[in-house]
Amino acid sequence: MRLPIAGGGPAERADAARNRQKILRAAARLVAARGADALALDEVAAAAGVGVGTVYRRFADRGVLAQALLDERERRFQEAFISGPPPLGPGAPALERIRAFLHAFVDRLEEQGTLLMVAETATPKARFETGAYRLHHSHLAGLLAEARPGTDAHFLADALLAPLAAAQFVHQRENDLSVERIKAGLDQLLG
């Protein structure tokens, strides 16, 4: 069963869906060939064989396009922490689930960090305006409230998500911090 991604949009016409898929395939090819930093809407339009206006109607900027490229991986991540096996999914104590969530997020950043960085930094508040961020925050806040009753779970959820900003992660990896060291640091934050 496919879960609707938090913040997902309405159904689309068949021709619009075909164009969307052409655009996404072309964008994925460009990112694979040249990296996420090279993602440009006019080049995507040319590679997809559609007009630039068609791309801009679907994707207002490269951040929105990057989010669309990340959609399937985000769905799998959500399914894992909502209904997957413990400790990431239900059935483990709250602190174990928080740790598993943070570690899985780091793994995702390792896999797609530069593309996530494009998605999160296209506009000043892009990271916080996605349904995915709101779901991640809500999930962590609920687990934190369970694990540490009486704490400000909403603030702590933001505090735990802050070091998982893609730009922060990419910066750390470029400065020789290993994935294991980043995960260990997050474990230390959990105390």
TrEMBL record:
Keyword list, A-Z: DNA-binding
One Pfam short name: TetR_N
Record GO terms (molecular function): DNA-binding transcription factor activity; transcription cis-regulatory region binding
InterPro entries (UniProt xref): Homeodomain-like_sf, HTH-type_TetR-like_transc_reg, HTH_TetR, Tet_transcr_reg_TetR-rel_C_sf
Domain HTH tetR-type residues, every copy: 17-77
Keyword Protease appears in the UniProt entry: no
DNA-binding region(s) from the entry: 40-59
Protein's name according to its UniProt entry: TetR family transcriptional regulator
Organism: Actinophytocola xanthii
